[in-house]
Every structure is written in C-alpha cells, then in structure tokens.
Design goal:
Blueprint lengths: L9 H18 L3 E3 L4 H7 L1 H21 L4 E3 L1 E3 H4 L19 H4 L7 E6 L26 E7 L13 H15 L3 E4 L9 H4 L5 H8 L15 H10 L3
Parallel strand pairs: 1-2, 3-4, 4-5, 5-6
Helix pairs in contact: 1-3, 2-3, 6-9
C-alpha cells in the first residue's frame, strides 16, 4: 500500500530525527535548519502542519541535549508570509498582512528568525521595496536574523521586468534594513544558470519554474561580473 506521506507517520518522524542527530554528531554545525520555507507548507497542508511542528520541537530538544551551542531554526518565505504571493489553498489572504503567527508558533524553540526573499515576483522594481519591508522583523523579535536564500533577476522574464541595477537595490534594501542584526546571509546564485543544460534533465513546469531564477546570479553566464557583485563583496567583507 506504500507509506503515508505525513509528518505523523512514525517512520517519517524517526528518519528525520535520526538524520538531524547524525548531522549534529558528525559535523557539529553552528547552525541547523530543519525546514525550508515552512510557512508555505503550513498554507498548503494545514492539516499536517501541527504534526511537523511537534516533530520540530522533539528534534530541537534532542539536538540541544547533545549540542546546546547549535542554533536551530526553520526558514520562512518572506513574500508569502506577507501575503504577497497568492496560493489557491490559502483561506486567509490579505495582501500585506504579515502572518506573524506562523513564525511565533515555533517560539521559544527558534534560535534565530530566518527568511528567503525573492521580491521581484511581487515588486516591479527594487526601488518599490518599502523602506520597512524587512525591518518589520525588528519589531517582532530581538533575536538574530538570517537570509537563507534570495536574489533578484537581472533580465526580463515572462511578465517580470528587471535590470542589473535592481540587483543592487535588492542588496541595499536588505543591508540597510536588517544588516546589523544578521547572523548570516546567503545569496542564491553567484553565476547565472545555463537553462539549456538543465533542459536535458527536467521538463515542463519544472523547467519553467527554473526559468524564473536563471539570471539571479551576480555573474553572467559568460563569466562577466554584474555591478551587484562588487556591492555583495563589500557587504560580505564588512566586520
């Protein structure tokens, strides 16, 4: 009959917990992320979200018992958390209203607040990013923050318009609004993707989705640096 794809499945829970503990025992990480963009899962599968939440708490306690210095977290998709990406399964869709409860339900077992952010899906230009778009996080927590993935495309794609200057605007928005509080910051791609090479292995909707990220890189496909690369390097080396 196959296995139950749910976080209430004891075998799923055991496998995830054991894997997390193995990572901790072998690599002694400073940071341990236990889910990516978990608020999107909460929106899509509300009936299973509490099962994940209980598993997270169980793993958090188990890891802390062995490695109390490891900082444990999950990540949240910032545009979705702001109700700026409409998902058909969402019942409470109020654009711009931040679903803080989806973060705060993890407290106090959340050692830092971590987000992913691709605001080019929502805003036409980086200059449209509100001055408090990211700094709203500072009003809800005094913990460290992190950007675990994100970026801005540098060329138009489908209905999206973009320039290399938008990439600089995106980096500046994050740095200026929350840079002083960040534990770490990961930019999605250093170099653009050659989508033709991927087309040999993925097709249809998956290939189309990948297309939304192909020019997020700070270096073009041919190796030419984009203006935002020097800005990123400057931020990266700040003490």
């Amino acid at each position: 009959d196959g296995w139950e794809a749910s976080f209430k499945n004891p075998e799923v829970r055991s496998a995830i917990k054991n894997y997390a503990l193995r990572i901790v025992r072998e690599f002694h990480p400073r940071y341990l992320g236990l889910a990516s963009e978990i608020n999107s899962y909460a929106d899509a599968y509300p009936e299973d979200f509490n099962n994940y939440l209980s598993l997270y708490k169980e793993i958090y306690d188990a890891v802390k018992a062995e490695s109390p210095e490891t900082k444990i977290f999950v990540t949240f998709q910032w545009e979705d958390l702001n109700n700026l990406w409409y998902q058909p399964e969402e019942q409470d869709y109020s654009p711009g209203k931040i679903k803080w409860n989806q973060i705060e339900i993890f407290e106090p077992r959340l050692d830092l607040w971590a987000i992913s952010s691709y605001p080019y899906i929502t805003f036409d230009n980086a200059s449209d990013i509100p001055d408090d778009y990211y700094s709203r996080l500072l009003t809800r927590t005094d913990k460290e923050l992190a950007v675990t993935e994100g970026g801005w495309i540098s060329e138009d794609f489908k209905h999206l318009t973009a320039t290399v200057e938008d990439q600089e605007g995106y980096l500046n928005a994050i740095h200026q609004q929350i840079g002083d509080r960040m534990a770490f910051w990961i930019y999605l791609l250093i170099q653009d993707i050659n989508i033709e090479s991927y087309s040999k292995y993925i097709k249809g909707a998956d290939l189309e989705t990948l297309g939304f990220f192909t020019t997020v890189g700070l270096i073009s496909e041919n190796g030419t640096p984009k203006p935002a690369l020097s800005l990123w390097d400057r931020f990266r080396t700040l003490k």
